[in-house]
Design brief:
Layout lengths: L1 H35 L6 E5 L6 H17 L3 E5 L6 H8 L7 E6 H10 L11 E16 L8 H10 L5 E4 L5 H13 L4 E4 L3 H10 L4 E5 H9 L4 E5 L25 E9 L4 H14 L3 H8 L4 E2 L5 H21 L6
Parallel strand pairs: 1-2, 1-3, 5-6, 5-7
Antiparallel strand pairs: 3-9, 4-7, 4-8, 4-9, 4-10
Helix pairs in contact: 2-9, 4-11
InterPro entries: BUG, Bug_dom1, TAT_signal
Family: Belongs to the UPF0065 (bug) family.
Protein name: MFS transporter
Length: about 325
């Protein structure tokens, strides 16, 4: 009896072990299915710039729609500082599971790497490019006392009056600074740089004629044009802006090929699975084609990007980075 009991117990243990093994094998597809079910919880989206700033507002408009697309909330987390590089570095160190994303601009990936050699991240290695979401062109403003009404007249005036003109920016190494440096270099003119702590602070001096020109954002600059305080000559994008459709581009106004926009894009940490990157890319591409999103962005002077693959986005950023590297190098631009 005891022997039969021992054999029966051993057989029962073997059956339990076999059942457990079979259960584990059956559970493998379920685990894979769970991975494919991303997102199963809220996704953190780090915006490395202050709340209520331009990048933050754009991010919130798009993230709200992406949340609807995915059926899971995208939570905006503002981590400003050091020109956007602090929050950007945080994403570089995050897990590559799709639950920490970066919504950023050309500043952190195409400009800062050439101005800040000791960055805590490598823009071309520490991230998974995901989606190009939007672009924002600038408007070229001049003081009304300047006797020019077009880009060609401005260039002619600057050439005829060397050393007389200056331009305002929001600081050394900013996109405003780079826009103007690239403009002056292509036009073959010399104009003095007057840096401010922000473009808003330069408007009063621009109206008074103490500074002569400024590349400003379209939403903040055009109200001053409408009131007659400033004059607009052109926009910097490769096509006319919906906010100022009567203004020509700089390229069609005398500088063929000139184009400058601040792009907005989404990254994840390096090492994300291609399938996951593709899924997030599709969600953002669908969001930026939504009519309500397009209308909301237009109010901020921002236009949705043409949908791109992650590879196309990466190539665009590389080209933009190379362009700004040349402008920074040729014009000896530093943050000092």
């Amino acid at each position: 009896m005891r022997a039969r009991f021992t054999v029966s117990t051993t057989r029962r243990q073997w059956l339990h072990a076999a059942a457990a093994l079979a259960g584990g094998l059956l559970a493998l597809p379920a685990l894979a299915q769970g991975e494919a079910a991303w997102p199963s919880r809220p996704v953190r989206v780090i915006v490395p710039f202050p709340a209520s700033g331009a990048t933050d507002l754009v991010a919130r408009v798009i993230a709200q729609r992406v949340s609807q697309e995915l059926g899971q909330q995208l939570v905006i987390d503002n981590r400003p500082g050091a020109g956007g590089t602090i929050g950007t570095a945080e994403v570089a160190k995050a897990a590559a599971d799709g639950y920490t994303l970066l919504f950023t601009t050309s500043s952190t990936h195409a400009i800062s790497p050439h101005l800040m050699p000791r960055l805590a991240y490598k823009a071309d290695k520490d991230f998974s490019p995901i989606a190009h979401t939007a672009d924002a062109a600038s408007v070229l403003l001049v003081t009304p006392s300047l006797p020019v009404k077009s880009v060609q007249e401005l260039i002619a005036y600057a050439r005829a009056n060397p050393g007389k003109l200056n331009y305002a920016t929001s600081g050394n190494g900013t996109i405003v600074h780079l826009n103007t440096a690239a403009f002056a270099a292509q036009a073959g003119i010399q104009i003095a740089h007057v840096p401010y702590k922000g473009t808003a602070q330069s408007i009063t001096d621009l109206v008074a004629g103490q500074v002569h020109l400024l590349f400003d954002s379209i939403p903040t600059g055009m109200p001053h044009v409408a009131s007659g305080r400033l004059r607009a000559l052109a926009v910097t994008g490769d096509r006319r802006s919906t906010l100022a459709p009567n203004l020509p581009t700089v390229a069609e106004s005398g500088l063929p090929g000139y184009s400058s926009v601040t792009w907005f894009g989404v990254y994840g940490p390096a090492g994300m699975k291609p399938e996951l990157v593709g899924r997030i890319n599709q969600a953002f591409n669908r969001a930026i084609q939504n009519p309500e999103v397009i209308a909301s962005l237009a109010k901020q002077g921002v236009e949705p990007a043409r949908p791109q693959t992650p590879g196309q986005f990466s190539a665009m950023v590389q080209a933009d980075s190379a362009r700004w590297a040349k402008v920074i190098r040729d014009n000896h631009i530093t943050l000092e």
